[in-house]
Amino acid sequence: MKRWWIGLLIGLGVLINYFDRTNLSVAATPISNLYHLSDAQMGIILSAFGWSYAAFQIPVGALLDKIGVKWLNRLATILWSIATFMTAVVSGMGLIILSRVLLGVAEAPAFPAASKATGYWFPVRERGVATSLFDAAAKFSNVIGTPLVAWAVTTWGWKGGFWLTGVLSLVYAALYWAFYRDPHETRLSQEEAELLREGGAQQAGEAEAGIGKSLAYLLRQRKVWGLTLGFAAYGYSFYLFLTWLPSYLVKEMHMTVLKSGWYTAGPWLVATITDLVIGGWLVDRLIQRGHDVTRVRKTVLVVGMIFGLAVIPAAFTHNPNTAVIFIAIALGGLAFSAPVGWSIPSLIAPKGTVGLVGSIMNFVNNLMSIVAPIVTGFVVQRTGSFESAFVIAGVVLLLGILFYVFMLGKIEPIPDPKV
């Protein structure tokens, strides 16, 4: 049972992690009004987190495979708490950008570390639910975090949201230092140790070929690129909604900041449920009943992306309830494809390279956290609406479906490189 407590601890970290990421999107309208920022300038600020977050993915993957999950995440939790508090005390566009860049550095290990730790702690047959625990937390953070931060911003001003999330980050840092250990550092029951050993859990250790050779080898693998580009297409829509959805509701649907927070929570609640039930429980259930692993996972990936195309009709309605329904369909589909994507690095990576595979995938995915906010900001400023921005997201999803179908191939381990 210790593995499930570890799974919940990892999920709690991602939940707090995303409070820190979404607080700026909730505070975007008050900040832009205070500093007289255009939509294009706000798009640049919203993307600043992604600059460093994406840039540090490959180094973080190498460090994870070199020094392990525990110590890298211990240091990261302290640093991201400092960066969140920093945002609350600075003023001006430049310093806000600097604090977001620092936050991106600090939170860079979050998902690759979660994926690697899940590979250590869970057998293959439980990997779907285990992965959905931390992936669903990213969605659920918007269900409780967006209204909570909106309340803090409404009550204490835009800096109040950052003070609140900074305190929560410090609390999590203390919990992580106290309770996270890798399996080989933990006294497991004989039953649980045997389950991990015989169930295909990843073993700790570095790749024999070394980091440089392993990275070069992985970058030559078609399977890695099929996963990476398909997941990046998911990331474009995910980051569009993560950074611009509250502003879309305020600007396009003429809501208050507080009301936009509650309307934002609805689609993210749908996403949380589909992530856990379809991307987690259903995937594991079908595989345990003997269905082909590749067919199950690729079907869920592609069907989820198809549901994501509901972002297109959302672009052409001016009714807030209709728009939120379409957005909920889109986010619900994208959400149940995401944990399947995150489970794949630990299923295809050669020994000692789960961190690298996850980081390659997350590096390109998080280039979308830069591109989506900026493109959306410029398109909205140029056209005066979100219609074209949502259509662009739909086209990107179509490309992602093609990468998953034709490049990913069978979901099985890539042969170890020859040393």
TrEMBL record:
Cell compartment(s), UniProt: Cell membrane
Alphabetical UniProt keywords: Membrane, Transmembrane, Transmembrane helix, Transport
UniProt-listed InterPro entries: MFS (IPR011701), MFS_dom (IPR020846), MFS_Na/Anion_cotransporter (IPR050382), MFS_trans_sf (IPR036259)
Membrane spanning stretches: 43-64, 76-98, 161-180, 224-245, 265-287, 299-316, 322-342, 354-376, 388-408
Membrane topology: Multi-pass membrane protein
Major facilitator superfamily (MFS) profile domain segment(s): 6-412
PANTHER family per UniProt: FI19708P1-RELATED, SOLUTE CARRIER FAMILY 17
Designated name of the protein: MFS transporter
